[in-house]
Amino acid sequence: MAVALSSAPRQSLMVAGSIQVPVGSLQSLRAEAEQLHANVSDLGSKTAQVVASVAAEYTTLINTLRPMGEKAITRIIQLGDEIEKLAADQNSTQHDALIADCKAGSIALHNAFDDAYNSAKSALDAATKEATEIVYDESQTETDETRVKQIIALATVILASNKSNLQFQQDRVNTESQAEQTATNARNDAESKLKNAKNVRIVRDVFTLGLGEAGDWGSLNKEMSDAESALRTADNNLEQAQKDYAAAQSAVTSALADIAAITALLPDLQRLGAIFQTERAQLEQTRAKLNDFTNTCLDLANYFGSLDAQSAPLEYIHNAAGLASAVVSLQNTLGCNTKLSGPFLTAPSSLDGPLEQIAKSTVPAGPVTSLM
């Protein structure tokens, strides 16, 4: 009786390398880092679910096969008693009947362990597939962590450029402030001259009958106009420099915030990477148990099958002691209440000869009763 286990493929959620980031855009770099972090977090959550699912499937498999295991152990105990009788009764009329019974029991055990093997193999294949995907996802997580570190390095370079620009704009503000002060002083000087000249102009106009104003004697108006024009230019330059400085200062502040946000993701990415390692180790433990159980079922199925196939001793179980060891391993894995006892445990070497005799005998098997 095979146990159906889920083996549907899981889709990896990682999208590392798929985001095109404009060079120099801190906001885009931050968006990429946050997307990578979100992907890893989501995949980490799904990986934990998969690991738990594989463990649950393993538990289901063991619970499902436990009744079969207990029946099989009971049948193996009976087989040991029958083999002892066979060894003690080599010449009676019951000899062939004992061999036929032993072969029938072996076939039933072969069939039971073969079914158990097929169920375990299905679960093992699914677990192996998940383990392979988790290794891939873990490598993607490491790649994403590396990319975030690269983003931090690139963002630091951009920050340095922004700080350099901020210093340039600060120097520019200082220069324009000095120019504005110089223009202010020039305007004030021109204004003072103009004010003083107004009194002179009144006197001049009296004596020149207004011709002094028309000719702008002394170029006083032009000097005042030039001073005011220079001040307006200086004011405009200073205003623009102050705006550019504010923009540069804002860029530095924003860059610091972006870098802080990106850098804050790194410890969590490293934590998630460690979780992947833990999850993978847990899945590998389950897979290793499944692998051992699957191989034990296969070895037992092949051994009991060989008793009716007139075959040579097998590679992995080639005597009664090896058989007993495999059965004990299986009963421990399944948590069977029925424990192996009798000659397979107490005197396994005494069964090797009769087991070989059964395997080589041409006597056909008796009626087979299923253990499942």
From TrEMBL:
Entry coiled-coil feature ranges: 224-258
This protein's UniProt keywords: Coiled coil
Superkingdom of source: Eukaryota
Gene3D superfamilies, per database record: Nucleotidyltransferases domain 2 (1.20.120.330)
Keyword Coiled coil: yes
Protein name per its UniProtKB record: Uncharacterized protein
Source organism of this protein record: Fibroporia radiculosa
